[in-house]
Amino acid sequence: MVFHPRDPAHRGVSRRDFLRRSLAAGVALPTSAAILAACGDDGGTTPPPEEDDNTVRFGTLENPVTLQTYDDNPPIDSNLEREAGPLVIYNWELYMWKRVLKDFAKKYGVEVKYETFYNMEQAIQKFQSGEVDVDVFFPTIDYVPKLAAGKLIQPLNHDYIPNIKNLWPAMQDPYYDQGSQYTVPYTIYHTGMAWRTDIVPMEVEDVAAMSNPYEIYWNADYAGKVGIYDAYREALSLGMYRDLADQTDLNTSDPAVIDTAKERLIELNDLVGVKTTIDGAYAGVPEGKFGLHQSWSGDIQAGPWYTSDPKKEAGLLRYYWPARDGFGGTIDNDTYAIPTNAKNPVLAHLFLDFMMDEFNAIKNWTWVGYQVPFNAVNPETIFEESYPGLEGWFVWDYEAPAGSHWDNLKSTIVTEEDFDIGKRAIGLDVNVDGLWQDAYAEFKAGA
Amino acid sequence: MPTPTGGIVGQRRWYYPALAAPGILWLLLLFILPFYAIAAVAFGGRDPIFALPIPAWNPLEWQYETFSTTAGELFSSSGLQAQFLRTLAYVAVSVAICLVVGYPVAYYIARYGGRLKILLLTLMIAPFWMSYLMRMLAWVNLLAVKPEDPGLFNRLLLLTPFVNDPVNWSSGRVSHMTVILGLVYGYIPFFILPLYAALDRIDTSQLEASRDMGASPASTFWRVTLPLSKQGILAGAVIITLPMFGDYYTPNLMTASPENTMMGNAIDLALQGQGRQPQGAAITLLLSAFIGALMIYYLVSVSRAAKEAQR
Fold it and tell me: Hey, is the C-beta of B269 within 8 angstroms of any chain A C-beta?
């Protein structure tokens, strides 16, 4: 647990210290534009900051960032005995297969508990307030620099994670955390659109042929059947893609652009009565409650499980990510991190290494539906050849016609090349973030 | 040295406050302190990294900018104002429907339930042994329209001559009805129970006196039964109005549409968002002030009724 008042000396920071440092950092906290500017224009890596620098640094693809490490927040030593547990995982609901957790529990003879959060904001709040006491956390990348600067997560000791070599090379050295000092990647996904062809009678080629595929949402023919994620960055980004396509800046601080995106969403609401959900893509579309929904690739990949009759309905599902045709699109990855005050840090490192094992990671993918960025995954053959020992386990095999797969879901596979063309949403400073949230609140008010 | 009488008086002086102490402590711990915490957040600051709230426990350090901005939004053309007016409309219509639907039920059980009173009350409450969430999800599925399946509710409607096509209950103007349906279904037992208690307490000799004086059954109802049950109506209305004003899960579950969001949704969104907790706390305070005004009306009304009864 971070900043637990009963353990103020642990790793040298108390809640009061944190707030004082936060305020001090706030004085120096630049705007996102300034942060980006500070990262340099030469496309090189931002140099490691000074030891006592608490400034939050958001890396970009052009300007990767090496996060600051602190003497009072060191990684654990090598060759330590593992703790007795129980290991507590703190993750999104249904975002990890319990069977894989049981495999870990069996291998190390420990109990594994799985606790969930609703969204990242709630998770961070519980972290800071000390409500949760966990060993492994799954932050989104926009929060990683803040968590590191706030010393809420601890640097990793890579001696315990040799399996990190199994990741795509770029994922071993990500732009938001060069050298994977604090995090290792968990899953990868892009944000596209998912639909059922019996409600939205279009094929992927038809959508790709539109002047801007994002316009598909603004179609009154689908009124009452359209949904977007109840997540302000994703929702407003859709409004931006609608106008700006590949020119969209997912991290804009321009109030006019944010306001226009909000107006686009309000138009969308007026036109089709759009709904905001979290489960609309992975459950709502497959169940037929939605005809079209903004969708993370991993959400719709799990779609066949949620259809009432996969043999009849899984083949109706479609997924499209417009970035592959030059219209812009969001791509992202989630991460594993270990909280600073984890009670079982060695066990947590072992868990990370366990999940960096190809078989375990891909086994987890077969259930979660979210892909893992491993060298062993060949996007060209994973549908047909699967992974040794996991043949028939993937969702695209689930009740598919004999000898075939749900090839309509093939576009949900994320490739290394997708990361070259996809846009990344980085963390925003609090004032810019406030602009985004206020705009989303106005849309959500249904004014 | 205290006399025996003085000792008894002294004991009595502490007897009733001591009995009230657990309740007062309960209120203090579970209402006043949390409410003060909300005020401290509404008038506090935010940390600059995660934008999480930093409560201002000392009133001398309170900052009023967030509160005044939020209050300004409520009194100007804004999303928050739209949500407030929508909430008012939803609650008013829902309470009215609860009254129209619930009064005859309570009246029947109180006046004609006879030996079946307990059974009827139990049957009325029985569905509410299930969680609110499950009951709302059941409605979602009853109303859901899927390809080749218009949903059970629509199937029934399609049997009538009034409906030709399946209705999409979660979209458009009809979605307002859907949310109101959810609110009424969710809260109506809590309206009926106090109303039943009030009706059951009415002395039947008063009704007989009215009839003996030549009043018709309708006149007896309007001039005797209804006035005597006014406190039950108000009590039921207060009991369901308070949670309805804070409700956010009913519109979330029933329609998930921005067109149907209520004040509770505005608070929920603010509390879930980074850095918007002070706004959420400010909306909570403003809503509390409004509900407080309604409560004062209720208490004054009860007080007047009590005085009239003593005459």
Answer: yes
Give the Cα separation of A244 and A232 in Å (integer): 18
Question: Quick check: A235 contacting B, CB < 8 Å?
Answer: no
Kindly report the number of other CB atoms within 10 A of residue A49's CB atom: 17
d(CA B66, CA A36): 29
Q: Is the dihedral of CA A386, A391, A394, A395 positive or negative?
A: positive
Query: Which of B41, B46, B50, B272 should one mutate to test binding to chain A, selecting the residue with the greatest count of A CBs within 10 A?
Result: B50
Tens digit of pLDDT for each residue in A9-22? 332 333 223 333 33
User: Which pLDDT value is given to residue A377?
Assistant: 87
Work out the minimum CA distance from A337 to partner chain B, whole angstroms.
17
Hey, which bits of B261-308 come out as E strands?
Answer: none
* Binary contact (B54, A150; C-beta < 8 A): no
Q: What would the DSSP string read from start to end of A299-331? A: HHHTGGGGSS-HHHHGGGEEEE-GGGGTS--EE
Rg (CA), chain A: 22
Closest CA to B200 of B125, B106, B120, B123: B106
Task: Note whether B196 and B121 are within 8 A (CB).
Answer: yes
Q: What is the pLDDT of residue A38?
A: 33
Q: Which residues of A touch B47 (CB under 8 A)?
A: 19, 22-23, 26
Distance CA A72, CA B236 (A): 58
What part of A 7-46 touches B (C-beta under 8 Å)?
Answer: 19, 22-23, 25-26, 29
Q: How confident is the model at residue A280, as a pLDDT?
A: 92
Closest by CA position to A124, among listed B274, B56, B44, B45: B274
DSSP A384-440: HH--TT-TT-SGGGTTPSTT---GGGGGG---TTHHHHSB------HHHHHHHHHHH
Residue A149 has its nearest CB partner, among B49, B51, B175, at B49
How deeply is A76 buried, as exposed, middle or buried, from its count of CB atoms within 10 A (0-12, 13-18, 19+)?
A: middle
Asked if A86 is an interface residue toward chain B (Cβ–Cβ < 8 A), one would say no
Is pLDDT above 60 for A438?
yes
Q: What is the pTM of this model?
A: 0.84
Q: Is B244 on the interface with A (CB under 8 A)?
A: no
Q: What is the mean pLDDT of chain A?
A: 85
**Interface A-B: count of C-beta contacts within 8 A:** 128
Chain A interface disruption, residue of B41, B49, B173, most A CBs within 10 A: B49
CA angle A239, B263, B43 (to 5 degrees): 95
Phi and psi angles of residue A144, each rounded to the nearest 5 degrees, phi first: -60, -50
Q: Cβ–Cβ of B274/A430 closer than 8 Å?
A: yes
What is the distance between the alpha carbons of residues A78 and A158, in angstroms, rounded to a whole number?
A: 9
Q: Which residues of chain B have pLDDT under 70?
A: 1-11, 309-311
Cα dihedral A371, A376, A380, A384 in deg (nearest 10)? -90
Do A273 and B172 count as a contact with CB atoms less than 8 A apart? yes
B115: left (phi over 0), alpha (psi -120 to 50) or beta: alpha
